[in-house]
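S.,

As promised, the flavin mononucleotide run. Input:
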Amino acid sequence: MQYYFAPLEGITGYLYRNIHHKHFPGIDRYYSPFVVTRDGGIMKRKELRDILPENNREVTLIPQILTNHAENFLCAAETMYELGYQEVNLNLGCPSGTVTGKGRGSGFLKWENRSKLQHFLEEIYQYAKPKISIKTRIGWEDPEEFTDLLQLYNTFPICELTIHPRTRTEMYREGVHREIFRQAYKTSVNPVCYNGDIKTEDDVRELGQEFPQLSSVMIGRGLLSNPGLVSRIVGKDTGKQELEAFYYELFDAYQQELSGDVHLLHKMKELWIFMAPQFTEHEKYLKQIKKSRKLSEYETVVRKLFYEQELA
Ligand SMILES: Cc1cc2nc3c(=O)[nH]c(=O)nc-3n(C[C@H](O)[C@H](O)[C@H](O)COP(=O)(O)O)c2cc1C
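Predicted complex:
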C-alpha cells in the first residue's frame, strides 16, 4: 500500500511537509494544497513558492490545480512540468462555497456543468504535458450521481483517481459512502485511491482487508491528529518524544516565516484543534490554547501539555 498525505489548504504547506517528512518518514507522496489558476495560468507568488522544487527537495510532491478553465489548467500544468513535475492533480472535490459558486472544485460536478466538465477533460487530457490524476467527491448532492461521473472518468487516461466518497452537500458530515467507493474499485478502468475518515492503524488495516487490490490510500485529518500514523504502520516506533520534536521544529519554522504573533498563534491554534485529542485529559489544555492571546501564555500551556500528559 502507498500512503499519501492529503492536501490541506492553509496547513500542509512546504514547511509542514518537510518537517513532517523529517520526523515521520513513510509518506510516499504529499499533495500540495490547491493552486488557483488565473488568466494565463499565472499563480500567486505564495502558491508558486509552495511548489518550487527547492522547497520540496526531500518529499515527493504532486502539485494540485483548482480551475474549470482548460487553457488556464494547461498553462499551470506546463509551468509545473517545467519545474520538473511529471504529474499534476486536478481538484474536483473542494466544497467551499466561494469555490463551488464559480463552478470549480466539487461545483464542477453539478449536473448542469456535465458537458462543460467533459469538454474540459477532453482538452486537458489531449494537450497537457504532465500526467493528470484527479481527486474527486462522488457528486453534488446525491451519492448515486457517481455512476454517471465514473462512466465519464472511465473515458480518460486518469493516472490515478482519488475518491473521497462524500457529496458536496455532505461537506465533512455523516460518514462516508463506502459502497460507492466499492463500485468504483470494481469498475474504474483507472487506478483508484481511497480518501476519507482514515484515522487509525485499524482503519488502514480494515481498508486493506475490504479492498485487497487497493494500491494507495490518502489520509488528511488522521495525519494532522496523529502525524506518526503512517510511520507506525511502516514499522517506525513513534511516540510523544517524536511528536514533541516535530512540533517544536514546526513552531520555530512558522515563527521565522510568519510576521507577528497573531498569525503564528492562529496557525498553531488550528493545528492543536487536530493534535490535542491525541493526549490524555487534553480538554482543559486545548481550551487554554484556544484562549491564549499572548505567545508566552500559549507556549506555557503547550509545554505543560507535553510535560503533564501522555499520548492517549
Ligand atoms: C482544512 C482543510 C483543507 C483542505 N484543503 C484541500 C485542498 O487544498 N485540496 C483538496 O483536494 N482537498 C482539501 N481538503 C480535503 C482533504 O484533502 C481530504 O479530502 C478530506 O479532509 C477527507 O480526508 P480525511 O478524512 O482523511 O481528512 C481539505 C480539508 C480540510 C479539512
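The pocket of flavin mononucleotide is lined by residues 6-11, 33-34, 64, 91, 93-94, 135, 164, 195-198, 219-222 (CB under 6 Å). The longest strand covers residues 131-139.

- D.
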